[in-house]
Amino acid sequence: MRVRYNAPFTLTFSLVCSLVLVLDQFLVPHLISSYFTVGGQGSFRPEDPWSWWRLVSYTFGHAGWDHFLGNLSFILLLGPILEEKYQSPTILVMAIITAIATGLINTFLFSTTLLGASGIVFLLIILVSFANIRSGEIPLSFVGVIVLFLGKEILDAFKNDNVSQFAHIVGGTLGALFGFVAIRFQDSPEKSIP
Predict the structure, then answer these.
(1) C-beta of residue 108 within 8 angstroms of C-beta of residue 92
(2) Which of 157, 29, 30, 164 lies closest to 99 in space, CA to CA?
(3) What are residue 38's DSSP bridge partners?
(4) What is the mean predicted confidence (pLDDT) over 102-113?
(5) 102: in domain
């Protein structure tokens, strides 16, 4: 029996997040705050390469071990299932789009700093509810996930708790969009032509 690197996106993402947090906590203080966060309004400068880097890199940074473990437990649980269904490159593209969209919204609409993989977590949570969906159907499990997870985030958006509910909402919304697009693609006649 051998160990298999079964979910390249999930495992690589998790390892990078782990490395960034360990370096920040033990070897390079302020690494996360310097290179793995995206700032609020006015912080994005198109001429600055670091601004572009931070639009994606903030997903690797976490505020601490609890934040890290909360996000990574969902990613490690859901990621392999989704990589098997949609393939690793597709999940990578979905995660990058989610990260950039969330980062840009934060830099243009909010004054807070953003870090962590919560948007990607909600992308995966919503996307996994599409695992057995067929064209022309909306599974009740999808409705339940939307009500429980996104409904809670919408209600929590009115709290002052340093949690970026908008990142969760953006990730979940993009997960739903990607899920519906994937179903249409899977059921398209062009795909079934040999």
Answers:
(1) no
(2) 164
(3) 114
(4) 90
(5) yes
User: Residue 117 falls within a domain, yes or no?
Assistant: yes
Of the candidate ranges 76-90, 98-112, 145-159, the one whose mean pLDDT is the lowest: 145-159
CA distance 102 to 98: 6
- pTM for the full model? 0.86
| Mean pLDDT, the chain, whole residue set | 87
As beta bridge partners, residue 30 has none
Counting beta carbons within 10 angstroms of the beta carbon of residue 171, is it exposed (0 to 12), middle (13 to 18) or buried (19 or more)? buried
Amino acid at 10: T
Tell me the residue range of the domain where 54 lies: 8-192
Contact indicator for 165, 154 with CB cutoff of 8 Å: yes
**Domain-located, residue 124:** yes
Residue 14 sits in a domain whose CATH number is 1.20.1540.10
Number of domains in the chain: 1
Rounded average pLDDT over 48-58: 95
Token couple for 97 = 């789009």
Q: How many CA atoms lie within 13 A of 178 on its CB side?
A: 28
Place of tokens 């029996």: 1
